[in-house]
Each structure stands twice: as structure tokens, then as C-alpha cells.
Amino acid sequence: MNTNQVTATNHERVVSLASGWVMLFLLIGLLLANAAMFIFAIADGVNTVGHPHFGLFALAIFLFPVLIVSLTGLFTLQPNEARVLLLFGRYKGTVRAPGFHWGNPFYSNGPQQAVSWRASLAAAKFGSAEAPGQKPLGRNKISLRARTLNGDRLKVNDKNGNPIEIAAVLVWRVGDTAQAMFDVDNYEKYVNTQSESALRHLASLYAYDHGEENEPTLRSNVEEVSRALRGELQERLAKAGVVVDEARLTHLAYAPEIAQSMLRRQQADAVIAARQKIVQGAVSMVEMALKELADKSVVQLDDERRAAMVSNLMVVLCGESEVHPVVNTGTLYT
After folding, report:
1. 3-state secondary structure of 89
2. Fewer beta carbons within 10 Å, N or C terminal of the chain?
3. Which CATH architecture is the domain 146-254 placed in?
4. In b/e form, how buried is each residue of 135-152, taking b as 16+ CB within 10 angstroms?
5. Is the pTM of this model over 0.90?
6. Where in the chain is the domain with CATH 3.30.479.30?
7. Per-residue pLDDT reduced to its tens digit, 234-263
């Protein structure tokens, strides 16, 4: 038996429904007309034949619940809100236009009924009106507004195996309501889980800093890392019909257990870089001094005295403490 199952991907189909205002006035008019027919069937029947007109009476009784149920098909949509239409388990389309609408009153809440049932059981268990973390979804309405997910700080290893702390913020919205409703069990939880997984995977692809030559790192190439994170998130969340608008790192640091060691390494690197700059500047100044002395014939120095002068100048220019000169009252050769 083949155990590999391929889940069919659902795609959104935008539909339009009747105006809610037109149907509201029509249904109210039909209710009033049905009430008048009910009264007429009783009054006229008793006056003419001694009993109600059973045909009209039965029709009026039948139409009352039909019209009342039809009124439940009225619903409203706010801007950037959509409703998924399900009729006896079949997807009939998605309404995206804001306003007052009327649809088939038998459009159900579909898979969210199970969520509501679980929520009611959890509410009874916790003794509250609503279970923690559960929000009523109301007739398969889905918000299309942009949402922000501020992820928790994760402790992961970078490319070099160093433990680091990393966190990211994600701006996302629902792009395909059919995929969000039917291709994953809970698209909000799916976004949270996949965001954490993508961030962990991204951190393992880059070094925190001190990468190889021309290699991007997490600390020095934030824009490139953010683009890579957004691309990976979009690839992962496309299955849930989610569009990623932006993804950025909000926190990046070494883990506490190695933070002090890495700080000392960074300080050592800074000292080495400063020393290199000082030495380069000192060499340039010594070279300029020797050239000026030779060009202007201020003094003629042999190789030994030139080496001694270079040594003295380098000590003066590169030393950290203040230099106290010694005055030679003799000659250069004594």
C-alpha cells in the first residue's frame, strides 16, 4: 500500500454576493407580507367558510422560519477583511469587498467549528468564558491586515559554532485565504513555528563576525541577512497563503557564557588595528623626516646614525607613555 499522500493545494476564488441592504428590505417586506397572509388566512377563512384557509395558513407557517433563517445570511465586512464561504463542506469562494452582504444562510464555519468546540471544552476546563489564547473567528472571517510578529530571543550556534542570541521581527499578511484556511491547521501558529525554524537555519549559515574574506556576516551585513531571511520565510509560508512584507533582525549578541571572551577578542582586534595605524603613520613620518634632512642638506648621516635616528623616532612616535628626551652635549659620534 502506498503511504505517500499528496495534499492538493487550494487556491482562492474571489466571488461577489447580493447587497445586504437590498436583501434586508426585501426579507422584511416578505415577512410583513407573510404575516398579512397569515392573518388573512385565519380571518377570511373564519368569516367565509367557518375555518381558516388551510392552504394559505400552512404556507404562512412554513414561510416564517424560512424567512427568519434567511435573515441570518446577512453579514458585514470591514476594509481588509475577507470571509471564506463553505457550503456543506465545499469551498464556494471568498468575499473580499467591504460592506453589507447577503449570502446563503447555510454557509457554515467549516473547520473552525472544531476549533470553537475545542475552545468551549477548554473554557469549561479552565472555568472561564473563553479559553486562554482562543479568539472567536465568526463565520470564517479572516483579517487581511498586516500583522507583526516580534519573535523571542533564540539561542543558536552560528556558522563557526559560536553560541549566539538572535531575534527577528516579521511583518506578514494573509494573501490567499483558501490556503490559509484549508492547507494548514492553524495558519497563525504555522507562521510562529516556521519563523522560528527559518531564523535558526539562517543563523547557522552565517558567522557572527570575522568571516572569511568577502564573506557576509550577521553583524556586518544586516541588509543582506534580512533579505535572505525574508526569502526563506516567504518560501516556507507560501504553503499557508501568507505573504511576508518585511523581516529584520532585532537582536544579535553572543551568548552570555562566551560574551566576555568575545569582548576581549574584539578589544584585542581593536588594539591591533590601532597599532597598525600608528605604525603606518610613524613610518611615513620617519621617511618624510629623513627625506627632508637629506634634501635640505641639514646633516649628513651614515647608515649607522640613520638607523639610530629611525629607532629613536619610532620609539617616540609609537610609545604609549610620554617620552623624556636626553640632551647630548657632545657630538653625534661621542
Report:
1. coil
2. N
3. 2-Layer Sandwich (3.30)
4. eebebbbbebeeeebebe
5. no
6. 146-254
7. 999 999 999 999 999 998 888 776 556 666
